[in-house]
Design a protein that fits this description.
Layout: H1 2-17, H2 22-32, H3 38-52, H4 56-82, H5 112-128, H6 138-151, H7 157-187
Helix pairs in contact: 2-6, 3-4, 4-5, 4-7, 5-6, 5-7
Length: 188
């Protein structure tokens, strides 16, 4: 069963990775980086500051905790534990992979980019949901960043899906923990 899922994952990856356009290569490299998203990060922090006033730093801690949980779990535990090669390092299909820029480390399961972006999107959604009805679009940002990892040849779709699940759980956990901590401190 697992072997069949891995085969489907490889087939889907090859299909998605083959859909490349030369002018999009540079855009995908930029999308997968952090600098292009800096205005989004600044705007989100401004929204948090505007809506939470002096308590904004609690939510900054929640965001940092989300990234810490998501990144450490995927990079520190999952990648070394599962040792699933990235598509560009996979001896079975590596020669078929359209690689843009560089290949990255040896292992790719699960995607830290997906975990971090979906984690941050989740915690931002939970933080800002009461204040703006358009906050759900941060999940589109996560999906675009995650797709860029397939486009660039460094992650399988399953790496992305599992990374996203880890991130969503990490974001929800961080929100819950900071909410509880904040409540305990303000009521004692």
């Amino acid at each position: 069963m697992i072997e069949q899922i891995i085969e489907w994952d490889k087939d889907l990856f090859l299909e998605l990775n083959s859909l490349h356009i030369s002018w999009l290569d540079d855009a995908m490299v930029a999308i997968t980086g952090n600098f292009v998203w800096l205005p989004l990060y600044i705007w989100m922090l401004w929204l948090i500051f505007q809506n939470y006033g002096k308590k904004w730093w609690w939510w900054l801690i929640a965001i940092a905790l989300t990234v810490l949980i998501s990144d450490r779990f995927t990079s520190g535990f999952m990648k070394p534990f599962f040792e699933r090669p990235r598509p560009c390092h996979d001896p079975e299909i590596g020669y078929l992979v359209h690689i843009v820029d560089h290949c990255g480390g040896a292992f790719g399961f699960a995607s830290s980019h997906a975990a971090n972006t979906f984690g941050v999107a989740t915690v931002l959604f939970l933080i800002l949901k009461p204040y703006t009805r358009y906050i759900g679009w941060v999940f589109l940002w996560s999906a675009i960043v995650s797709y860029s990892r397939i486009y660039l040849g460094v992650h399988y779709p399953l790496d992305i899906v599992v990374g996203a699940a880890v991130g969503i759980m990490g974001g929800a956990l961080s929100f819950y923990l900071i909410n509880r901590l904040q409540f305990r401190i303000t009521t004692s």
